[in-house]
Write a structure and sequence with these properties.
- By secondary structure, the chain is an alpha+beta fold.
- The chain is 31% helix and 27% strand.
- The strands form nine sheets. Strands 1-9-10-11-12-19-16-15-14 form a nine-stranded antiparallel sheet.
- A hairpin with a 2-residue loop joins strand 14 and strand 15.
- It is elongated, with a radius of gyration of 26 Å.
- The two termini are 36 Å apart.
- The model has no long low-confidence stretch (mean pLDDT 96).
């Protein structure tokens, strides 16, 4: 049995199966996504969701929402599809699924009387094309498979409504038909490797509902256009591919193309392999040829903070130095006054992140820690490193600047510049205008790392200008942030907030820490006792009255809980790093337990990946995006740390 597999009894239980989602991305920025029973529960679900740059935005667009297969045999019709309508599911084709597995690609097994067949889905790596392969394993006599496509042609943040403007016409193509519902969109070519008869019978399917959108307080009903259907005669032993893409393809190449793609997939036969597979899903090349990281799937785009935090775990743990530097080098032209855009790039860039540039330096530091080559890094990135640090030192956007005490102050009303960035009615849910604990920890670490590189390269001018600063930063930081028990989260003009939050762990984990061993021990102890869960760190101690233990409801309710107790996986990497600083080999079993506790997660919510967040309260239900880059990266980094310590132990024996 495959590591990722579900049987008939699980699949027919809608309360169980509709909670489990699949997503597969390509290197062009698109994806295919649905649930393990092919019933879409989000507006973000679709079999072909791709960029449409001619429309003038950087959003993805749902082209092909789904396909329904109908088996016509002995005068009877059996519909394999499933959709949610008001008050019912229709049809209920999931009852014909005998099993599902995803190693290395999604495969469904169907049984309809004497007809048994499999269905596999692959998204082409370098092209906006989804391919669905059918194998007819058993079929007495002849039958017909009818394939009915549900078209959307809309922004994935929006919903489609039946209208008179949709172009219902089609153009014949090789063994298929092409459609373009609205001006500005690419044509969508639907083709089969096996001879198919297309019957044009356009019809709207009304009030298809998406349960996850309803839960999240958004509009959740849409109308989809079915332009017609494709009939294919089938018999035992048949194997054919049905495809949807933005260019016409020779039908004779489809099976070969599918098999070639299948060979490139990472087997998901273990928990670790699932993480490696998930890590590859976030990397893509945009229409300008820039290599980027999707912060999360489905709806997160390019976030520089998330990118730099995730890069070492996603790529360096796999020794993919080339992609690591391509991402970094493609980001550098977007730097402005020492800052990277928090969201977007080029004309879509938004410079409202105070920490992204410091995480950029940390990412380079992780590379040097792993591979050395400090002189080469300094030679190539000296200019950008100094541009960051000089702007932080002398002042840049959003009132960000080092004060005379050595600490970096940042913040303006109405903006949330740190990773705790939820805004409600124009106000930050967690106001952090002032000296933030992780910002100043990153600032100190960045200055010290820069000096390390400068000393290795004997860059005396830089050393002279910066060498006295770390001592000042550390002295002020300990005086203002340390209370003998834990670190303050923020210091402002109005006082110091010693609320127990997870940000302090970063001050304990960074390679250059302002804390001594006793302070690190105390911080780790506080975080372990009040914030650590089996799914990551709570953002706020449950002892605080503002704590919210569940992340659910509409946008307002969720934003109010986002950083007020919600559990995040990414900070777990920093907890483990700090913990291993203290306990080394003696802490290995504890860290192994933390890592292995996530194994069930790849069989839940986002299949073979790790979600964005979890509830602060047990049972710590998965929430948010089904696959998050820095969540996956954190676990790969923890696994890497475990392997390094285990290797040292073996070498001693």
């Amino acid at each position: 049995m495959s590591f990722i597999s579900f049987d008939h009894s699980q699949l027919v239980n809608l309360n169980y199966s509709l909670e489990k989602e699949l997503i597969s991305t390509n290197h062009a920025g698109g994806y295919a996504s649905t649930t393990i029973i092919n019933c879409n529960t989000r507006k973000y679900h679709g079999l072909l969701v791709i960029p449409q740059p001619r429309l003038g935005n950087d959003h993805l667009h749902v082209m092909l929402s789904s396909v329904d297969e109908t088996i016509i045999y002995d005068g009877l019709e059996f519909n394999m599809g499933i959709h949610k309508y008001p008050g019912l599911y229709d049809p209920r084709g999931h009852k014909y699924i005998t099993g599902f597995e995803a190693d290395p690609r999604p495969v469904w097994n169907y049984a309809v009387g004497d007809i048994h067949y499999t269905k596999e889905i692959i998204l082409k790596t370098q092209d906006d094309r989804v391919m669905i392969k059918y194998r007819i394993q058993q079929c007495e006599g002849k039958a017909v498979m009818r394939i009915k496509p549900f078209l959307a042609f809309r922004d994935y943040h929006s919903l489609s409504i039946a209208n008179i403007y949709a172009n219902k016409k089609y153009e014949a193509c090789k063994n298929g038909a092409a459609f373009c519902l609205y001006e500005g969109y690419d044509n969508l070519f639907l083709q089969s490797s096996k001879k198919a008869t297309y019957v044009h019978a356009p019809d709207w399917y009304y009030h298809i509902q998406y349960l996850r959108e309803k839960e999240r307080g958004y509009d959740f009903e849409e109308d989809l256009l079915v332009p017609g259907y494709f009939d294919l005669e089938i018999k035992q032993g048949d194997e054919f591919v049905f495809t949807a893409g933005t260019n016409e393809i020779s039908p004779t190449t489809l099976k070969k193309s599918f098999d070639a793609e299948a060979k490139t997939r990472v087997k998901r036969s273990t928990f670790k392999n699932c993480l490696v597979h998930a890590a590859k899903q976030f990397i893509y090349v945009d229409e300008e040829g820039k290599t980027s990281v999707k912060a999360g799937l489905h709806w997160f785009g390019q976030w520089s903070r998330d990118t730099f935090i995730a890069l070492p775990g996603l790529l360096l743990t796999q020794n993919d130095e080339d992609t690591f530097f391509r991402v970094i080098d493609d980001y550098l032209p977007d730097m402005y006054k020492g800052l990277f855009p928090n969201l977007g790039r080029g004309e879509f860039a938004s410079y409202n992140s105070v920490d992204a540039s410091l995480w950029y330096i940390w990412a380079l530091q992780q590379y040097v820690t792993r591979y050395g080559k400090g002189n080469a890094i300094w030679k190539k990135y000296k200019k950008s490193i100094l541009e960051v640090l000089e702007n932080y030192r002398f002042g840049t956007l959003n009132n960000t600047a080092m004060h005379d005490n050595g600490l970096v102050w940042a913040g303006v009303p109405g903006k949330a510049l740190t990773w705790m960035d939820a805004i409600v009615d124009g106000n930050a849910v967690t106001p952090r205008i002032g000296y933030c604990v992780e910002i100043n920890a990153l600032w100190y670490n960045a200055v010290c790392f820069m000096l390390e590189l400068a000393r290795q390269s004997k860059d005396s001018d830089v050393i002279m200008q910066w060498e006295n600063l770390p001592g000042l930063i550390q002295e002020t930081f300990l005086k203002d942030f340390w209370n003998g028990h834990n670190l303050a989260d923020i210091v402002t003009d109005n006082g110091t907030d010693f609320t127990v939050r997870s940000n302090q762990i970063i001050a304990a984990s960074l390679p250059y820490s302002m804390l001594g061993e006793s302070e690190i021990f105390s911080v780790v102890d506080v975080v372990k006792n009040e914030l650590l869960t089996p799914r990551g760190l709570r953002t706020l101690t449950p002892k605080n009255q503002a704590y919210k233990g569940t992340y659910e409801g509409d946008q307002l309710q969720r934003d109010q809980a986002y950083h007020q107790g919600t559990v995040w996986v990414w900070q777990l990497e920093h907890f483990v790093t700090a913990y291993l600083k203290l306990f080394g080999e003696k802490g290995l079993d504890f860290v192994k337990d933390i890592y292995q506790a996530f194994e069930p997660c790849v069989l839940d919510y986002g299949i073979s990946t790790i979600s964005e967040i979890y509830d602060g309260d047990p049972p710590h239900t998965a929430r948010g995006a089904i696959s998050q880059a820095w969540s996956v990266a954190a676990l790969l980094s923890i696994d890497d740390a475990i392997n390094n310590i285990s290797k040292r132990i073996r070498m001693k024996k």
